[in-house]
Amino acid sequence: MSAASAAAWLETAANDLDAVRRSLMPLPDQNLEMAAYHTQQAAEKGVKALLTHLGIAYPRGRQGHDIALAAAGIPASHRLAGDALALGALTPWATAWRYPADDPATAALLPRAADIEQWAEKVEAFLNAVTVELAA
Fold it and tell me: Distances in Å between the alpha carbon of 116 and those of 9, 22, 72, 110?
């Protein structure tokens, strides 16, 4: 794939991080559900940017949002492979709070704003590392 395609993934991921920041604004505007969702989306797009840059196909369809599955396609020897795999913990954030829970007893707990901020910082660091990779 082209560097332009990978850069487009990164640009879209940056938009998601902007949405995270806006969603974490102080109350009453704070929206943790959307902040968590966009954190996952930024991570997913960052992993897809790296895969695109490496010329590796990423999962599509329903599996396309599984960050760990996508990250598993990155060669283990690649310097960002471990970071990408760690972002797989965000996969449930794609849907956990976007739909009503079938069973409130098993519903996922919404992360705290501080947790979302920490993950967003990790995602941003990963995106920056991928940007450096694309420039090399």
Answer: 21, 12, 23, 10
List the structure tokens of 73: 């396609």
Q: Is the pTM of this model over 0.90?
A: yes
Please give the pLDDT value at position 28. Answer: 85
Between residues 47 and 110, the one the model is more confident about: 47
User: How far is Cα 49 from Cα 43, in angstroms, rounded to an integer?
Assistant: 10
Q: What is the pLDDT of residues 59-84, one digit of tens each?
A: 998 888 899 999 999 999 999 999 99
What do you get for the CA distance between the two ends of the chain, in Å? 16
Q: What is the 3-state secondary structure (H, E, C) of the chain?
A: CCHHHHHHHHHHHHHHHHHHHHHCCCCCCCCHHHHHHHHHHHHHHHHHHHHHHHCCCCCCHHHHHCHHHHHCCCCCCCCCHHHHHHHHHHHHHHCCCCCCCCCHHHCCCCCCHHHHHHHHHHHHHHHHHHHHHHHC
Residue pair 15/9 in contact (Cβ under 8 Å)? The answer is: no
